[in-house]
């Protein structure tokens, strides 16, 4: 198994498979178990590539149309239908509760080429955010350069730093959770072995007494 294969496994098998692979390739231990929504999007990339590419192509045509290179209404209908189809498929993996998180990840891919490549790779660990764009109209307004606001930029930088810290803390907590789970399984196995030895010893005592 290769590290990339981990992201195609059923979500509940990820941690055990990663830990087993890490015995041969220690660097794999750093890989994080995907969130439910991220895992669902990964399955779209791995199992429903045609539908995913149809959506990304429709999103690209909509961006072009918004810049005056096509019929905006028609492109919007096509993009919405492709998105609806993807969300319907993703629901089979993540359930309705994660639909909004899946949607925001796909919309991030629709307006940002780098996000689209991350989605195509099928190795997301967390869902993506549309980077502050309220809609696909971001493509039409990207040419405008807003007047600089140092105070606002500072607040954004502070908020982004706080988000990075929070994500790092989450990653540490998840690694600790994985380690605790592994320790529990080892302890459970040891307890089962000890119980079997106790049962065997008890049987031997009974055999000796009855003999």
Give a description of the structure.
This protein is an all-alpha fold and 211 residues long. It folds into two domains: 34-142, no CATH class; 149-211. It is 71% helix and 0% strand. The chain is built from eight helices and no strands. It has helices spanning 14-22, 36-47, 49-66, 72-94, 99-111, 113-121, 138-141, 150-210. α2 (36-47) packs across α4. The N and C termini lie far apart (54 Å). Mean pLDDT is 86; it is low at 132-145.
Radius of gyration: 25 Å
Shape: elongated
Q: Distance between the terminal alpha carbons, to the nearest Å?
A: 54 Å
Number of alpha- plus pi-helical segments: 8
Percent strand: under 5%
Low-confidence stretches: 132-145
DSSP, total strands: 0
Q: Name the helicity range.
A: over 70%
Major β-sheet profile: none
Query: Please, what is the average pLDDT?
Result: 86
Number of domains: 2
The H-and-E topology, N to C, reads as HHHHHHHH
SS-based structural class?
mainly alpha
Topology:
Blueprint: H1 14-22, H2 36-47, H3 49-66, H4 72-94, H5 99-111, H6 113-121, H7 138-141, H8 150-210
Helix pairs in contact: 2-4, 2-5, 3-4, 4-5, 5-6
List keywords for this structure.
mainly alpha; 2 domains; 71% helix; elongated
Tell me briefly what this model is.
It is built from eight helices and no strands. The protein is mainly α and 211 residues long.
């Amino acid at each position: 198994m290769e590290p990339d294969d981990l992201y195609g496994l059923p979500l509940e098998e990820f941690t055990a498979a990663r830990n087993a692979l890490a015995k041969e390739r220690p660097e794999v231990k750093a890989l994080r178990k995907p969130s439910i929504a991220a895992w669902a999007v990964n399955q779209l990339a791995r199992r429903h590539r045609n539908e995913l590419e149809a959506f990304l192509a429709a999103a690209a045509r909509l961006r072009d149309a918004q810049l005056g290179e096509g019929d905006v209404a028609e492109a919007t209908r096509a993009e919405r239908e492709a998105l609806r189809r993807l969300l319907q498929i993703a629901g089979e993996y993540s359930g309705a509760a994660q639909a909004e998180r899946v949607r925001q990840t796909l919309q991030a891919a629709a307006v940002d080429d780098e996000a689209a490549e991350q989605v195509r790779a099928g190795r997301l660990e967390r869902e993506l955010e549309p980077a502050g764009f309220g809609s696909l109209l971001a493509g039409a307004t990207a040419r405008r350069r807003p007047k600089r606001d140092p105070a606002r930029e500072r607040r954004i930088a502070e908020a982004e730093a706080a988000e990075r810290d929070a994500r790092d803390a989450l990653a540490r907590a998840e690694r600790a959770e994985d380690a605790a789970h592994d320790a529990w399984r080892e302890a459970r196995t040891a307890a089962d072995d000890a119980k079997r030895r106790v049962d065997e010893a008890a049987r031997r005592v009974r055999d000796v007494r009855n003999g």
